[in-house]
Write a structure and sequence with these properties.
single chain; about 650 residues; alpha+beta; 6-stranded antiparallel β-sheet; 5-stranded antiparallel β-sheet; 23 helices; about 65% helix; about 10% strand; globular; disordered N terminus
């Protein structure tokens, strides 16, 4: 199932929103605000309004949270301030402002613990987990989800405990611990069933289906998707019905039952329209295009693909418009907050307006006089402006040349620290390095070193490309060399841990907003040239091994923890893998630039599966010929399109 697990996961983190917007409650609270409430009562009303709108209108959530936080600060009421900070944190989270969200939620969590407010304490922990899992820091998220569940269990909060079980199961699923994920998903299902919470039961069915899908157990996956679909129809949840029908359609597509797939996907379109879900329409039209393409009905396939593309483009434009509107609304809310802190001094505002009008009249007189002077000296002024413009153009041309010269010099510096070709050939005789920077300087770099009988080599992808990426590459290169030459490390997991610590310390990374949040992904190998033992550790990036005469690619995945970006100050641990290789086996490590390059007839990414197939086809060639074939293939794929990222592929034959 090409997209079932990913779609279901997106639904999990919102599992706390099991009720529709209580419009009656929102209207009642808004009426209360205008009845002359005390500051304390007004603050509580704003907190409740922020909570009511939390899952439905983030702009209103942020507006009410800001007002509540301002009043709570003036009142110096810790309980109200903690609740307001919780809402502020969720407002930043919905805006994907993760570091601001962490600051507010961590403060709310500490206040909840100090005040003995268990409900506030475990909700802040859970929301922190949601932020960290959205940032890809699954192990940190798991820590907070477990803490939230433990607190909820102590106070017998069964509903929230069940919700936290779902999030814990999701973390274990991402950590490839399917048994633990299954245990917590079924715990959640049992709890929701005991509470007769149909929405919770429905989403538990979906979660369990993801596990069976990941295990390629399509029969059991189908059973739970059907249960989820039936429950969604029973509670009249159009979005979940669209999601269930769509996943069933994708499942039948994988089983090559194309007629059944069409039936379910048509139903998915119907419920997507009822739910006004543009995202579900986009995915469903894409699946229908695939179905009709397999059926040989290329007219319909092309029609559905065009609809998919049109809606996707429209979504992109709508997202940009929404970001502009959100920025404007945030500005207005901040202005309103200032009005509250200043006590809404209406009389002063009126006086200020009077003074402004006087200033405007004076300025108008000055402008008229100045305009008259401009008309009299128009010809002279134009000549002066033209001369000034020529000077500016000359200055810009000169500055551009200086900048380009500086970057070209930086390129020579970067090339000088990279391992020279003769050193690579000496340490790895039968190998190649395909290195294609996007800009003059690169954020990708390769590194090779020898310690006794062990050759250590790496393919590193720093945050960004161009000058920022190049600066990170210099830092990474020095830390890698330090780990081997000064610390004597050869075990890849230890080297990555040293690198993670070094980047965090050198960039002074923390949860504060003014620090650098950059890092790097890499694959690092240690090859014992006497025993042919390969050790590997990776940060997001993995290693591919093609055994001599094998028909497939053996893949070892890296850990889902980048180098650097440790806002919690804790150095990550990296798994050290070991494989025994034989003569003729080939090792490949790389950055994501090759697979992510856009091109081809439809302008899509090259992707990893075709890259594996290409390596299998050329594996019997010499390493120099392999490099040429890889370069030729990606150049042909790219065509006239721009190179989107630095490209780095390293191949080593035993």
């Amino acid at each position: 199932m090409k997209r079932v697990p990913a779609i279901l996961f997106l639904l999990l983190l919102s599992c706390s929103a099991y009720s529709q917007l209580d419009q009656r409650k929102a209207d009642s609270l808004q009426k209360l605000i205008g009845t002359g409430l005390s500051d304390t009562a007004l603050c509580r009303a704003y907190i409740l309004l922020a909570e009511v709108y939390q899952e439905y209108d983030n702009n209103k959530t942020f507006e009410y949270a800001l007002k509540a936080d301002s009043i709570a600060s003036l009142l110096e009421n810790k309980n109200l301030k903690a609740n307001a900070r919780l809402r502020m944190g969720m407002g930043h989270f919905k805006r994907e402002e993760y570091y601001e969200a962490i600051n507010y939620l961590f403060e709310a969590m500490q206040m909840g613990e100090e005040l003995g407010e268990a409900n506030l304490h475990h909700r802040a922990c859970n929301n922190l987990g949601n932020v960290y899992i959205s940032m890809g820091q699954v192990e940190t998220a798991l820590k907070y989800f477990l803490k939230a569940a433990d607190i909820a269990q102590k106070v017998n909060d069964k509903l929230n405990m069940a919700r936290y079980y779902v999030n814990i199961g999701t973390c274990y699923k991402h950590l490839d611990k399917e048994d633990l994920a299954s245990e917590f998903y079924f715990r959640a299902l049992k709890s929701f069933t005991e509470m007769k919470n149909k929405r919770g039961i429905m989403q538990s069915y979906m979660n369990i289906a993801t596990l069976y899908a990941a295990d390629s157990n399509l029969a059991d996956c189908q059973v739970y998707l059907v249960k989820a679909k039936n429950m969604a129809l029973e509670i009249r949840d159009n979005f979940s019905a669209a999601l269930s029908y769509g996943n069933l359609g994708t499942l039948y597509l994988m089983k090559n039952d194309l007629d059944s797939s069409v039936v379910y996907l048509d139903s998915a379109l119907h419920y997507s329209r009822l739910a006004n879900s543009v995202r579900r329409l986009v995915d469903t039209y894409e699946d229908l295009a695939e179905v009709y393409s397999r059926k040989g009905d290329y007219r319909k396939a092309l029609e559905y693909q065009r609809i998919h593309t049109h809606i996707s483009d429209s979504m992109s434009k709508a997202d940009k418009a929404e970001q502009v509107a959100s920025a404007e609304e945030k500005y207005q809310m901040l202005q309103h907050q200032k009005e509250i802190e200043l006590g809404k001094k209406n009389e002063e505002i009126k006086n200020l307006r009077s003074r402004i009008w006087i200033v405007v009249l004076i300025l108008a007189v000055i402008v008229v006089g100045f305009a008259a002077m401009l008309l009299l000296n128009r010809n002279k002024r134009r000549q002066q402006e033209n001369a000034l413009l020529q000077q500016h153009n000359a200055m810009i041309t000169h500055q551009k040349k200086e900048i380009t010269d500086s970057i070209n010099y930086a390129k020579r510096i970067q090339e000088s620290i990279l391992p020279p070709d003769n050193l690579v050939r000496q340490l790895l005789p039968d190998s190649f390095v395909l290195y294609k920077p996007k800009d003059i300087v690169s954020g990708d770099f390769y590194w090779v070193e020898k310690k006794e009988d062990k050759v250590i080599f790496a393919a590193v992808d720093c945050t960004g490309h161009g000058v920022p990426g190049a600066m990170m590459s210099v830092l990474g290169f020095n830390l890698l060399s330090q780990s081997v030459n000064e610390r004597g490390l050869t075990r890849p997991g230890d080297i990555l841990q040293h690198l993670d610590f070094g980047v965090n310390q050198m960039l002074r990374q923390s949860s504060e907003g003014n620090t650098v949040k950059d890092g790097m992904d890499l694959a690092l190998c240690t090859l014992d040239v006497k025993t042919n033992e390969l050790q590997f550790a990776g940060a997001y990036n993995g290693v591919w091994i093609i055994r001599r005469g094998a028909a497939g690619v053996e893949e070892i995945k890296g850990d889902k923890s980048p180098i650097g970006v440790n806002v919690d100050g804790i150095v990550d641990n990296y798994t050290n893998h070991s494989r025994q290789l034989a003569k003729g086996d080939t090792i490949y490590i790389f950055s994501d630039g090759y697979a992510d390059q856009f091109g081809g007839r439809d302008g899509k990414k090259f992707k990893y599966k075709p890259m594996k197939e290409l390596l299998l086809r050329v594996n019997s060639l010499s390493m120099a010929e392999q490099k040429a074939e890889l370069d030729k293939a990606i150049t042909a794929w790219q065509g006239d399109l721009e190179q989107v990222d630095d490209i780095l592929v390293i191949g080593v034959r035993i």
